[in-house]
């Protein structure tokens, strides 16, 4: 069923590409042009139960909200929703100390909370207030990071606990063709040919840059750079496919060299994400893609996720 939904989404995306602007994203979700439309889409997507829960939130609770997957469906580079916010959200991240997508989410959630409670919302005013409170948003980012390093999934993607768990997920996600290439790396380029494909997917989806329990696991092993982390996963997974027993004590930081693009032969399968067949998504995210509805979401502070 999920494959049928994704295939339909791809068809809708193709149709939209022929129009004047992108209206639907790759999963077939309508992308709002403004916050009024965003409120309307959230009304359609959240069930009565979820809306009741959202309506009862305080504004300070919004920094802990996650699992409202449809909002992240809108926040793609170049989407009309992102363009709408560009006049309000400062894109100079180095000057802000936090990321623009976090501000977009915050304003979207605040707008919807006010909408549910029949309260006025002035986007320009709220954006100026957030701009003047950059430190508070940075603190919210740190709270989100603290939650993420305890979470078993981030943005609908399962995060492995350690190397053995990452092997298990890769066993499930990768095609036999790609496993064969990893089992027998290219004699000249070795595993470096996967640095920008599968390696990039792992660094982004498993949050090796942004903070996750897998990233923290590597920190505990003395490995601090995401390139080293993905390189170690690639090397040890290749050894795993060849029957070698994992020896964590032997793991040392060793960045996999990334050859120039023109020197790397093309990979037949770049990454699980590129296939977009839903395998890498969590059960909750797959349910959302299938039903197009959100029945619940998370709104607890980071400490509530501790074991």
From TrEMBL:
Q: What is this protein called?
A: DUF6794 domain-containing protein
* Ranges for domain DUF6794: 159-241
- Origin species: Hymenobacter ruricola
Indicate yes or no for the key word Transmembrane helix. no
Q: Which PROSITE patterns match?
A: PROKAR_LIPOPROTEIN
Check the record and name the InterPro entries matching this protein.
Answer: DUF6794 (IPR046744)
Keyword Hydrolase listed: no
Chain intervals for the UniProt region annotation (Disordered): 257-278
Q: Which domain of life is it from?
A: Bacteria
Signal peptide bounds? 1-19
């Amino acid at each position: 069923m999920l494959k049928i939904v994704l295939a339909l989404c791809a068809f809708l995306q193709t149709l939209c590409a022929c129009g004047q602007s992108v209206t639907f994203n790759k999963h077939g979700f309508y992308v709002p042009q403004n916050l009024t439309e965003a409120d309307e889409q959230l009304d359609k997507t959240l069930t009565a139960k979820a809306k009741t829960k959202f309506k009862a939130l305080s504004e300070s609770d919004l920094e802990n909200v996650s699992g409202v997957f449809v909002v992240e469906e809108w926040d793609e580079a170049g989407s009309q929703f992102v363009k709408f916010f560009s006049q309000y959200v400062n894109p100079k991240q180095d000057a802000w100390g936090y990321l623009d997508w976090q501000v977009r989410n915050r304003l979207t959630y605040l707008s919807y909370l006010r909408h549910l409670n029949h309260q006025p919302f002035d986007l320009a005013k709220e954006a100026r207030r957030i701009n003047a409170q950059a430190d508070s948003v940075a603190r919210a980012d740190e709270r989100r990071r603290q939650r993420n390093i305890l979470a078993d999934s981030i943005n609908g993607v399962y995060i492995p606990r350690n190397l053995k768990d990452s092997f298990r997920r890769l066993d499930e996600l990768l095609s036999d063709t790609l496993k064969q290439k990893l089992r027998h790396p290219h004699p000249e380029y070795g595993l470096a040919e996967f640095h920008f494909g599968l390696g990039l997917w792992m660094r982004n989806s498993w949050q090796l840059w942004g903070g996750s329990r897998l990233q923290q696991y590597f920190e505990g092993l003395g490995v601090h750079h995401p390139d080293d982390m993905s390189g170690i996963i690639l090397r040890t997974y290749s050894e795993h496919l060849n029957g070698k027993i994992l020896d964590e004590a032997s793991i040392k930081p060793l960045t996999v060299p990334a050859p120039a693009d023109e020197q790397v032969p093309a990979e037949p399968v770049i990454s699980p994400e590129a296939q977009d067949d839903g395998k890498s998504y969590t059960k909750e995210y797959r349910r959302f893609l299938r039903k197009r509805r959100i029945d619940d979401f998370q709104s607890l502070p980071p400490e509530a996720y501790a074991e």
